Amino acid sequence: MKIEKRGIIYTPDTLEWWKMFYAMMPTPIYLPKKKCIRIFFGITDVERFGRTTFIDVDELNPSKVLSEPKTILLDLGEIGTFDDSGAIPSSIIFDDHNIKLYYVGFQRAVKVPYMLFSGLATANQIDNNFIRYSKSPIVERMLESPYSNSAPFVLKDKGLYKMWFWEGEQWVLVNGKQFIQAVISYAESLDGIIWDVKKHGCLKPSIETEFSVGRPWVIYHQDKYSMFYSVRYIDKLYRIGYAESQNGIDWIRKDEDINLDVSDKGWDSEMICYPAVITILGKTFLFYNGNNNGETGFGYAEIIDF
User: Fold this and answer.
1) Residue 69: CB atoms within 10 Å
2) By CB distance 3.0 to 4.6 Å, which of 57, 78, 262, 294 could disulfide with 24?
3) Dihedrals φ, ψ of 147, to 5°?
4) What phi, psi does 5 have (nearest 5°)?
5) What is the pLDDT of residues 87-108, one digit of tens each?
């Protein structure tokens, strides 16, 4: 796999109260009639409460921004619900006559920094605000998963909805700080709403050097499933990993196939994380966040040989 960095696309402009910091979890979808890629992402106010907005970029040159973020598409949830501290996009699909947005719901806690669960919101048109399906997560706590589970990626495959998501196994101390140790799990659904978790931990971190994997993005490419995801190391910050599978459940990690690392300086010199991949008119783009989980914004690379 040959990948070439193309540079930063967007960083927060601090011009309005709701878009002061961060531009997290770029989530692209192609709009051929508009000849653009719409990139949904999370942005925060001064208190770091997160909301969903978007920009449009040129279909063949994502460095060219066609429209700046002007509106909140998904606001904070009701006080006390799982997303009252943030609603950040993770995956979006066109589904018959509506659009499904799967998102990360944040809720701040006391003994741990936060709890994360997966939400669903829908819209009838791509330019409309999204409406929550429920005040509750679409994947609740389970016997095997009493902690957080979120960052869902959903693929509709021959009428079956398939979800890969981040699942917390336990809270751990890493270099004196609290982090959640997480795996990527797999679920299926007939309607994209009610989910049956088929396998807990279908892709796991290497305990010797890593403590978490997350934000999966899956495409079906050359008769196999390809997953791009974030890897959190013990001795360094996030990098992007890659894995392949014949059935979408049993994965072989091939992180060495990605020739993509931090830059010597600038917005992605400390970490690269939260990948999202889309192929348009023969070009394959990989969008990702940089330093401090997206505080410096997001940019992209182009996969030249895949």
Assistant:
1) 25
2) 294
3) -100, -155
4) -70, 140
5) 999 999 998 889 999 999 999 9
Angle at 16 between CA 14 and CA 19, to 5 degrees: 60
- At 137-163, the pLDDT tens digits run 999 888 888 999 999 999 999 899 999
Contact 89, 69 (CB under 8 A): no
- Tally Cβ neighbours within 10 Å of residue 145: 19
List, in order, residues 6 or more apart from 58 with CB less than 8 Å away: 35, 36, 37, 64, 66
Q: How far apart are CA 137 and CA 171, in angstroms?
A: 20
Maximum CA extent, the chain:
51
% the chain with pLDDT above 70: 100
CA 217/CA 165 separation, integer angstroms? 9
| Both tokens assigned to 127 | 């330019």
Name residue 92's beta-bridge partners.
101
Q: Looking at this protein, which amino acid is placed at residue 144?
A: E
In three-state secondary structure terms, 296 is: coil
The amino acid present at 284, given as its one-letter code, is T
Neighbours of 74 (CB within 10 A): 25
CA nearest neighbour of 39 among 306, 243, 299, 303: 299
Which of 195, 231, 216 has its CA nearest to residue 277? 216
Please tell me whether the overall predicted TM-score, pTM, comes out greater than 0.70 for this model. Answer: yes
